[in-house]
Design brief:
Blueprint lengths: L6 H8 L1 E3 H14 L7 E7 L3 E4 L3 H18 L6 E9 L4 E9 L5 H16 L14 H9 L6 E6 L4 E9 L2 E3 L3
Parallel strand pairs: 2-4
Antiparallel strand pairs: 1-3, 3-8, 4-5, 5-7, 6-7
């Protein structure tokens, strides 16, 4: 049925949000999918004066859900500190979202190993089939999205300070906020 193709849905597609508002909404909706998980959320360096269209919220939600779910499952911490930054370059049509989460020292080796294995599978092109299943497929789904544009990129792993990170660059149409 074409019931989804309504005037209301079309109006929503034209709606836009301030980038910081979009990040807040995406985090809120991602956390709603993870009952009982209460990380300490720290916003950091969100580009001001940039608006993104409503359909882009799907990408933000997916990335933040994947980052938060990984922090919940692999950080070894009850309330990990999670920092999210969002930098927009409207001239280039790029949006870069980085999420860092604290990790218990005893979980670092497993985090490094898991990230290395996933990066290898993505580099070998073996992630395509893994992106179609639920559970453990988040990075592969992000790889599929970012590979659709030459401007897209996906990086993840463990920082020198011992935090897990997920850094995704999207090619997006953004709207400058009128000053």
């Amino acid at each position: 049925s074409a019931g989804w193709f309504t005037r209301t849905n079309l109006d929503f597609a034209e709606k836009s949000f301030e980038l910081d508002e979009a990040i807040d909404m995406a985090q809120k909706f991602a956390l709603a999918c993870l009952p009982g998980f209460e990380p300490v959320l720290v916003p950091s360096n969100v580009t001001a004066d940039t608006r993104i269209r409503a359909p882009s919220l799907v990408h933000l939600h997916d990335q933040l859900l994947i980052a938060l779910q990984n922090a919940k499952e692999h950080s070894g911490l009850k309330n990990p500190r999670i920092t999210t930054s969002a930098v927009a370059d409207s001239d280039e049509g790029l949006l870069q979202i980085r999420v860092e989460s604290g990790v218990k020292a005893s979980a670092l080796d497993a985090a490094r190993s898991g990230a290395s294995e996933k990066r290898k599978l993505i580099a070998e092109g073996k992630s395509v089939f893994r992106s179609r299943k639920e559970g453990g497929s988040g990075f592969f789904k992000l790889a599929a999205v970012t590979s659709q544009s030459s401007k897209g990129s996906l990086q993840f792993g463990v920082t020198e300070l011992g935090n897990c990170f997920l850094d995704v660059q999207y090619s997006l149409v953004m709207l400058e906020t009128e000053s």
